[in-house]
Amino acid sequence: MYASREDIGYEFGDDSKVGSKPVKPNPNIDGGWAWMIVFSSFLVHILIMGSQMALGVLNMEWLEEFNQSRGLTAWVSSLSMGITLIVGPFIGLFISMCGCRLTAIIGGILNALGWILSAYASSVHYLFLTFGVTAGIGSGMVYLPAVVMVGQYFQKRRALAQGLSTTGTGFGAFLMTALLKYLCTEFGWRNAMFIQGAISLNLCVCGALMRPLSPKDLSEKSVVRSNSEENRAKALSHSTETIKSNGVLGDEPEKKEEATTEEVLESVQHVEIGGNSGNGRNMYGLRMLKTVSQLTLTVRKGFALWYSSYFGAASLFTNRVFVAFIIWALFAYSSFVIPFIHLPEIVKQYNLSRQDNVFPLTSIIAIVHIFGKVILGIISDLPCISTWNVFLMANFTLVTCILTLPLMQTYVGLAVVCALIGFSSGYFSLMPVVTEDLVGTKHLANAYGIIICANGISALFGPPFAGWIYDITQKYDYSFYIAGLLYMVGMIFLLIQPCIQKKQPRQKSTEEAQV
């Protein structure tokens, strides 16, 4: 298929100036504190993604409490899951300005506030605002930094690290389902949400563990990568130089603005040193001016990086393979979410409720999903294996299972298909790795924010669309068929664009040989 993941895209930025210098590796990259980052991300996936997978427990309580239609009530869960991912690009702006640690801490507070306020809901529409929007935005502010930090701290074992951290989704689905069932039975759903809000404050602790790497450490990580991939990067030098010639991030204007601001800071410091004997009130005003100037510089830098990534000359959208990746993401995530939402109803229609109560099919997906993430991560980190090829093979397996699931009408058949769905969907742990290979570490936050935004749109509209198809046809078969076909459309884009991207440098080299 494709020789390696480096052949499918290019990175923004120029590391050629430092690529030839020997650099002492940072002990925290691929080791040391990096494993604390994995642990923090693991807990984030338990508290956020695991809780969202367990919302079916609360959905039943909301149906009994508010007596609304199933479609309207289901939008509460869909909004929470969708907004968590849709806000990704805007959270990238927060990360650019404030860093991952502060963004995650604020998000943890907001997520807990959404759970607590939802305990006082008087209607489903109230839950739209408190749980769907407030808790959803808070979840997004913690989820994206958790993924980005793992990518920053790992170079050689990125796929394994992402796989270990994202297994928290499977563990969380088990733990949170059991916890919410117990809390609802013992204390009622309102007190259960209040207690869950208190538990969610632990997200702030997870955010505090996200110690940022220094710019020097990040540059060393880039040097290590550039040295190991130097020969392969030359094949794509023409594409990279074309983008650099357009001005990668508008460095010159940014440098001028930075110099102007630094002059102001230096003048303030000079006045402070020379005016120690002056009025204390004036000194306080000068310190405030210095603080405001520093804050303005930080915000301006962060916004410039965020804006240039989306709309500047080095826009992420100039990478055709990345654009194809976005189109794929618009259809992919719903194929994973739809079985979690509609499998219980399918089991009921096939009169398999007794077997499903012993060992639910959704639990089979969650268990095997854990092993799938770890195993696919280990395989992808092997030197002779391409992460891109593993990613594609897992996608083909998943779409095949989605299309064949309606054909299974026995518990054993459904269990086998669900196990394959769980294992193949482990490719989610490879998505940050593939994204970083396409755009580079510097743009990972913004790029992955776009990807999870596309996934959020898919999660927001996928399950309601499947329910709408059922209302028309009175069968879930067509819901899975249509979801599988749309998934295939996204796969076609992933297959076409890398071939085009790969051929362009080869055509250039042939012309130069003739000259």
UniProtKB/TrEMBL annotation:
List the keywords (alphabetical).
Membrane, Transmembrane, Transmembrane helix
Reply yes or no: does the keyword Transmembrane helix apply.
yes
Q: Which residues form a coiled coil?
A: none
Superkingdom: Eukaryota
What molecular function terms (GO) are annotated for this protein? monocarboxylic acid transmembrane transporter activity
Stretches assigned to the Major facilitator superfamily (MFS) profile domain? 37-502
Instruction: Locate the region Disordered.
Output: 220-240
Give the matching InterPro entries: MFS, MFS_dom, MFS_trans_sf, Proton-linked_MCT
Q: What is its main location?
A: membrane
**Membrane topology classification:** Multi-pass membrane protein
Q: Do the record's keywords include Cell inner membrane?
A: no
Q: Which Pfam families match?
A: MFS_1
Task: Cite the record's Basic and acidic residues compositional bias ranges.
Answer: 220-233
Q: Where in the cell is it found?
A: Membrane
Membrane spanning stretches? 33-55, 75-95, 102-120, 126-148, 321-341, 361-379, 386-405, 411-434, 446-466, 478-496
Sorted alphabetically, the Gene Ontology cellular component annotations on this record are: membrane
Q: Which PANTHER family match?
A: MONOCARBOXYLATE TRANSPORTER, MONOCARBOXYLATE TRANSPORTER 14
Q: What's the protein here called?
A: MOT14 protein
Q: Which organism is it from?
A: Tachuris rubrigastra
Kindly list the organism's lineage.
Answer: Eukaryota, Metazoa, Chordata, Craniata, Vertebrata
